[in-house]
Amino acid sequence: xxxxIIYRKLQETDRDSIEDMLYTSFILEDPLEVxxxxxxxxxxxxxxxPLVGWALADGVSVVAEHVPSRELAGVCLNxxxxxxxxxxxxxxxxxxxxxxxxVLDFLDDMRDxxxxxxxxxxxKVVDIRIINVLHKYAGKGIGRALVEESLLLAxxxxxxxxxxxxxxxxxxxxxxxxGFTTVNxxxxxxxxxxxxxxxxxxxxxxxxxxxxxxx
Length: 215
Ligand SMILES: CC(C)(COP(=O)(O)OP(=O)(O)OC[C@H]1O[C@@H](n2cnc3c(N)ncnc32)[C@H](O)[C@@H]1OP(=O)(O)O)[C@@H](O)C(=O)NCCC(=O)NCCS
Hints:
alpha+beta; globular; about 35% helix
């Protein structure tokens, strides 16, 4: 494979390709969604559609494009928030949303009891919501470059802090290499609700880390 990759800002014309990438790659590989067996697009739509819309509106998201095929190899979807991270709206009583609500509640729990303001300015924060690289392009530094480009873009937009939830070993390694601090870590084997283990079969991925960095 020709390895020429360019990095550029996410644009409206990418919307369908990115949604497709999330349904065919991210949701099938991210440990949380895999563990719950979330079906695409039916059960993933409530996450994917608003996030892609917010990322487009906020203007600090980056795609990796393979040259010359023009295939999108990866994406880093980011939003700009202040102290309170924007929550994905979950319609009450919709059975298609039950599993994704478990994921979203878990990510909210990661921030509960953690006062990021003690260590970081929270006036303008870039939240790295989704980082995804297609399997065939993985392990070549594309994920890392996507985050680096996102941080540069976010800094240009006046962001002072970056936050992310790193759900697996590769993203944890990636954020660590880029100088992020782990603010909270929850091991999947300790995350019990109503006496039940919530995330089973996470494979080599043992924990989720809330990470942050001053830009
Ligand atoms: C996480 C993800 C975006 C990383 O993208 P990537 O382009 O493969 O990452 P990079 O090549 O920049 O590598 C980052 C680190 O992980 C390591 N890594 C990545 N894939 C690996 C693999 N299959 N085996 C071993 N190490 C791997 C790299 O060696 C690198 O560490 P290093 O700097 O010490 O060498 C990608 O694996 C992915 O899309 N996973 C599925 C979705 C997901 O889990 N997203 C994260 C949610 S927070």
